[in-house]
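To the structural biology subgroup,

Please find below the input and predicted structure for Nop domain-containing protein, which we are adding to the shared reference set this quarter. The sequence is reproduced verbatim from the submission form. If anyone notices a discrepancy with their own records, reply to this email rather than editing the shared folder directly, so we keep one authoritative version.
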Amino acid sequence: MDVTEGYGDLDSVSRLHKSLRYIETMQKVEAATALQKGSADTTDQGMLEEDPEYQLMLNCNALLVDIEDEIVNVHNFIVDKYRLKFPDLKSLVNHPIDYARVVKKIGNEVDITKVDFEGLLPSAVIMVVSVAASTAPGEQLPEDTLSKTIEACDRALALDLTKKQLLDFVESRMEHIAPNLSAIVGSVVAAKLIGSAGGLSKLVNMPSCNLQSLGAKREILAGFSNANSRSRFGYFEQTEIFQTTPPALRVQACKDLAGKSSLAARIDIKRSCPTGKEGRRYRDEILKKIQKLQELPPVKQPKPLPVPNFESKKRRAGRRLRKQKEIYLPTHSRRLANRMQFGITEESSLGDGLGDGYGMLGQAGNGKLRVSVGQSKLAAKVAKKFKVNNYGSGGAPSGLLSSLAFTPVQGIELSNPQACANQLDGGTRSTYFSDLGTFSKI
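Predicted structure (tokenized):
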């Protein structure tokens, strides 16, 4: 809906310049500017909230917001009256003050291409306006409508001049009211932060994360992503640090500005550092941090190998360790498979030396594996024990011996084995040609 709908008079749209608050504030600003009031020695004593200059600065901030709204209303009034003459001018010139200057320059001129816009608009915009004016079917405005339009243009320019005057006054006084905050974000941004918060005391009580949203305007993106939206930065977007920071680091820079600005505002409200030294130190810290984030990572140097330790390690000994090592010892078959006899061909799993070799497990020529089984410790221990007990050897005769003998003549005969042993007790008597021997008759 158009703001000027139903209003035919400019005074019904713009009433701020006639208000008592506007007149009194401008008079105080002009008086303070003429007297050069606000030096450092006048603001170092007493509480900041009780300082009349501080109260005047708060009034100026509130008046600046009203002036901006008033300029928008006057701009809508000018567009509504001048659309009959040049309907496409609003889309070509977006700024309200530039629009008012162009309308005042054109007036009721029939051939707009002959109007000189040098100094009012950039050269590219001048060309677009000239081309659009030559094709747009504009109408001549009546004298009363043209006079109201020119008056609205003068009103908008006067409000803009008042806005600049107030900004200059606030900027000059911020160096003394909030020197540390001004050293970080600048006088203009510091004044806007204090004005939006409603005073330095309210700014101090705000969390640093909320300072980033001061001055932020919500953008209508029609469903598109807000990843690249700049509306969340607020007034910090106008600072020098933010503008000189690469886009990838601006979110981090905005967080640092908000944190340091909150600290600087607490220092300013106590007036513990009127020279602004702490604010400049905070600013240097932010710049160093941003510069540090832009540096490339250090080149990875080759890491030398550690010096080898030639000292022998302490090894555990004892029965438990020996038992543990016996688990991983190779078996007898494995030891034979890892050995080879000299001069004997080794048998293999695939033959002709192919596959896995059997070593000493194989015997050349028979195609069979042969393992030489050694006497076990248990068998040796049993044999030794049997020998000690004289089982089957020496002493008493064994119960398995028999006195029966098988002969080819008599068959079975009873003989004395001991007598035969005594007769054949060695020497030549035990040989074939013994003296006791006789011929047998068959």
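Summary notes: The beta strands are 404-407, 411-414. Residues 1-6, 37-45 have pLDDT under 50 and may be disordered.

Regards,
Lab coordination
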